[in-house]
Amino acid sequence: MNFKKELYLKFTRYIAIDTKSDPDSKTYPSTKGQKVLGALLLKEMKALGVKKVQMDKFGYVTGELQGNIKKKNPIIAFMAHMDTSPDASGENVKAKVHSSYKGGNIVINAKKGIILSPIECPELLACKGEDIITASGDTLLGADNKAGIAIILMAIQYLIENPQIKHPTIKIAFTPDEEIGKGVNFFDVKKFGADIAYTIDGDVAGAIEDETFNADGFKIKITGKSVHPGTAKNSLANASRIAADIISSWPENILPESTSGREGFIMFTSVNGEIEHAEVRGIVREHDIRKLNILKTHLKAIVNEKIIKYPLANIQIDFTEQYRNMKKVISRFPEIMENLILAVKDAGIKPIIKPVRGGTDGARLSFMGLPTPNVFTGGFNFHGRYEWVSLDGMQKSTEVMLNIIKQWAQ
Q: Has this prediction a pTM greater than 0.85?
């Protein structure tokens, strides 16, 4: 089985559509491009022969491949998200293939000095001899998560073209707005009808994940007081400077750029301000819910300190729950991970079981009654111009998906 050529064709069709999500949008999906991609996927699934294909008003694209075994096995689902990160442009994405990677630097864009280095990204070194795909250096690539979409539809196409392969009933879902934490806001788990699911939304080949961060968002609103700078002593409260003071007071060793593994962090994602008004937004991440609350308490203490320091200003902080660690749910269904581990081994890869330093739709779905671990796509450096995916890794992910189906058919 060699799916590389077809995977590449599918992938490049999908990344050509700008599906960047928008956290400030009041619509769902948050951007029109996601429904444009959804319409394309709808058309492709129907052409393949997938049944019960639909896209609802929220942009969820779903379908079903009826099982061909007599016994009533669990109904399994495979899911990926259609949106790309709001942190970088997803418009006019142009794929570049770096064939048979020999090691060393990959020049993504010489003119702009965008060079992918194994020193900064050692994960590349495991991909020697493989075909690496990047964008042109002007945009992100969109492998997160259009690589996952291509992998799912490739595996489904293979099953349909080879009806002798035994499989249970398989559900498919492509979701919007995962990148802004809204991916399953309106997803009807009961109506979908799956017993267990896998998101194809991970990174390097072999990586599988049944654990995510616990995640909250926060917003700090600062109302200052503007007066003429010539008479500002003891009467000016500069909201922008107060925002900067809050951010600079957070410990540098508890930031995403200074943590790894299971270490949690707070990240300040945006700052907007002037003298009278400022707003700071960010995220809190920790695998341990107790430690998550400690981080939140620490940030509240900093804000309270600034309330005392700047009595002329009004400073408020609010936290919003985003998702929780799916390990709590998935650990109750050991067969889900057992079959996944066997599927990876059967593809000739060593399983790398690790916590996600982020989240997936699966985190929320697990607490909604659909336990959903995460499977690799073969990519890395998501959300920016240095993003890449191994076409060979996508091939391996397709094989793993077929092996998962084989395990659940037994």
A: yes
